[in-house]
Design goal:
This protein has 321 residues and is α/β, with parallel strands linked by helices. It is 46% helix and 14% strand. It contains 14 helices and 11 strands. It is globular, with a radius of gyration of 23 Å. The termini are far apart. Keywords: DNA-binding, Transcription, Transcription regulation.
Length: 321
């Protein structure tokens, strides 16, 4: 039997705690129907017996406090909300306990932006971390040494599992079930809870938000210029000429500040422009592509799929009003 400790972190969402508890607990019922003993012992663990969540709107009574947990096999870090630096400070008392258990071969399952707290402990150093696309820039600014993965949903590295994207933590739990109990149980849980087990990428859901938390005024002006002209057909040399800077040096500065080359940034702005028109407009797909400034329809389709994992046609089917 594996013991699971779901941490009741300050500023955690109640839904991520409860749904984790529900999934792992219900799996015991699935196994029971197969005539097998329960596999998980699931407990909610906190600093005190009664933990307040959601700015005090909810109170959760935990099964144990952390000092009462002598041994566990899996620690689940729930999704956090609000101000991440404040949430990290509030949960600091969990850090040594978490680090100690990890070094005692305990698995850590981190749900979405619970990764901000996990990163603050140092346990993600020199590891990959999946981060919600909307939190990527803030995470990168706070933890520049951690390698962010923002295209796939799940990472699995040295006993630490992370996931990016709001409710994609449900897919991470299915992934853990498969590792512990096999594909059959994971598929059964997927069917019972109606979770899309094949969801692998954040890209179809992501909205491009340019990284602007830097102090390079010229790069900021270039970003604003590109974003203000999504249908323009200017080249990278023309952007550099617009600001009277040498291409090689400025491209290096731009990439350092934004994590995108100038060409990639222009592509992503055009893709966002196309996505909005595909979602709401009545124009044909080809008309929208031409409006972005592309004359080569196949070339744009390749760029669009690179950033969304969908063709423009499939994107319209998925998101049009």
């Amino acid at each position: 039997m594996k013991h699971i400790s779901i941490l009741s972190l300050y500023d955690a969402t109640l839904t991520s705690i409860d749904s984790s508890h529900q999934l792992f607990t219900r799996v015991n019922d699935f196994i029971k129907y197969q005539g097998k003993p329960p596999f998980y012992q699931v407990e909610i663990v906190g600093l005190t017996k009664n933990m307040k969540l959601g700015d005090g709107h909810y109170t959760i009574r935990v099964d144990k406090t952390i000092d009462q947990v002598n041994k566990t096999d899996v620690i689940v870090l729930p999704l956090l909300c609000g101000d991440f630096p404040k949430a990290i400070a509030k949960n600091k008392k969990y850090a040594d306990w978490l680090i100690g258990h990890y070094h005692n071969n305990v698995e850590i399952v981190c749900l979405c932006v619970g990764s901000f707290f996990l990163a603050s402990t140092g346990l993600l150093n020199n590891k990959q971390c999946a981060v919600h696309w909307a939190a990527k820039n803030e995470f990168q600014a706070m933890f520049p040494a951690i390698k962010i993965i923002d295209d796939t949903i799940i990472t699995d590295e040295k006993g630490i599992y992370t996931c990016g994207g709001g409710y994609s933590y449900l897919n991470l739990i299915l992934y853990i079930l498969e590792k512990h109990l096999g594909r059959e149980i994971s598929i059964l849980a997927s069917k019972m809870f109606e979770i899309d087990i094949e969801r692998k990428s954040q890209n179809p859901f992501a909205i491009f938000i340019g990284q602007k938390r830097h102090n390079d005024e010229l790069v900021l002006k270039a970003q604003e210029f590109i974003e203000s002209n999504p249908t323009a057909t200017f080249s990278v040399p023309e952007v550099c000429e617009q600001f009277s800077v040498g291409r090689r040096t400025f491209e290096r500065r731009f990439k350092k500040c934004t994590s995108n080359s100038i060409a990639e940034y222009m592509q992503r702005v055009k893709v966002e422009f196309a996505k909005k028109h595909l979602e709401t407009g009545q124009k044909t797909v080809n008309e929208i592509i031409y409006e972005t400034g592309y004359n080569d329809i196949d070339a744009f389709r390749k760029v669009f799929k690179k950033f969304t994992d969908l063709s423009p046609v499939d994107y319209r089917k998925k998101y049009s009003n």
